[in-house]
Amino acid sequence: MSSLTLDLGRFVADLSLRQIPSEGCDTARRGMADCFGVLIAGSRDPEVALVDRELGHASGAALASLIPSGARRSVETAALVNGIAAHILDYDDVSLDGHPSAVLVPAILAQAEASGSSGVEMLTAYIAGFEVWAELLERQPVPLHRKGWHPSAVLGPIASAAACAKLRGLDAKGVSTAMAIAASMSAGLVANFGSMTKSFQVGRAGQSGLIAARLAQAGLTASLDALEHPAGLLMALSVAGDAELDRPFDAARKEWHIVGHGLSIKRYPICYATHRSIDAALDLVERHDLSPEQVERIHVLTGRTQMLMLRNNRPQTGLEAKFSMQFAMAAALCARHVGLAELTDAFVKRPDVQAIFPRVALTGTDAIKEGSNFAPADEVEITTTKGQTFKSGPVEYAKGSHERPLSREQLWDKFADCLGEGFSADRKSRAFENLMSLDRLNGAGDLVSPVQ
User: Fold this and answer.
1) Which among 330, 350, 344 is positioned nearest to 282, based on CA atoms?
2) Could you say which of 1.10.4100.10, 2.40.50.180, 3.40.50.1970, 3.40.50.300 is the CATH number of the domain covering 4-260?
3) Residues 47-63: tens digit of each pLDDT
C-alpha cells in the first residue's frame, strides 16, 4: 500500500517556486488572470447575491474581500461567494476533467489576504493544488463524470486544502491532515449541472479546502491514509474497485502536470463539452453563409460522457442553455456567436433559436481521447433544405485549449470584456498586468485594490 496522503503532504510542504518549470508558472499566471476576470463578470449574477445574502454575514472576522466590491467577509465566506462567481457563467478555464482555477483562485485569494501571503506564495500554492488534483485524478481510470461525480467538487476540496495549507505554512503532516479532512468534505453531482447548484459545488469545494487547512492547523486530527486507504476517498469514488490505490508517488521523479495537462481557456461561456462542436459549426456557418431558414438538420458526433453533461435538449433559460448542445448549435447558426449576450433567457427563448432545437441530432461514441474525458474528436454535419450537406471533419482541439492556446492579446481581450464598462481602461490594465506578473507582487491586496 502506498502512503499517498503523506507523500503528497511532503511534496506540498517542501515545494518552492524555483522547483517549478517556467512553463508551469506561466500557465498558472494565465489561469489566475483568466479566473479573476471571469469572477468579476460572474459577480453580477443573482445567485452570487443570493448566497451572500443568506450566508455572507455569518460570524467570524472579516479578513477577506468580495471581488470586485471590496465588501468584507470572513475568509471562508469570501472563498465561497467568490468561488460561485468564478464558475456561475461556466466561462472559467478547464483542465483535469474539471475547473481547477475556479476552485483554487478564490480560496487562495481569501487565504492570502488574511495571511498576508506574497505573490510568490500564491503562485506556488496554486501549482501545489493543481498537482495534487492531477495526482488523484490519475488514480481513477474510469472518468468520474461517468459515475455521476463532479470532479471539481470531489477532488477540488483536497486541492484547495493543499493550497491553503501551503499558504498557512503547515508542515508535511499538517498538509496531509488538511487533505484528509477535506476528503471527508468531497461531494458534487453531475445531475446538478444546469442549475445554480453546479457553481455552488465549485465554490463550496474551495471553501471546504480552506476550512480543512484552518482546522488542521488548529489541531483537528484525521487519518493520514484517508486518500489511499481501502475505505478511503479513492476507493469510495471507484466502481468495482477500479481505483489504483498502489500507484506510487515520487516527488523527485514526478512529471509536472501543469505543464503536461496545461489549462484550456474558454472562448465561450458554456459547458466545455460543446466547444469543439461550436468551433466546427461556426466555421461551417460562416464559410457557407448559412442562415437558420436554410438549415434542415444539424448532426453532431460527440462523446457519450459529454452527452451526460449536456442534459438539456430544450433549454428555456440561459443557465439551462449552458448544458445544451442543441442551444450551442442554435446560437452558432442564429447569432454566429456564442458569448455572454447569447447566454440570456431572452435569447434562449427567441422563436428562431427554439426552432433549431428539434433539428439538432446527436450521436455518441464511447471512445475517449487519451488523457481526456471527451471523445477523440467532435464532428458537425449540416444539411440544408436544398439537400446540400456540409461536413466539418473531426475537430480534435478547441480554440483556446492547451494545444491551441489564446495569445496574450486574446487573453487580455477576454479579461477586459469580462470586467465590462464599470472599470476604466487603466484599472483593467493594471489588474491584468498585476495578475500576469503575480510573483512580483507583495500580496493579495495588490490584486484586490486595483478593481475596487
Assistant:
1) 330
2) 1.10.4100.10
3) 999 999 999 877 678 88
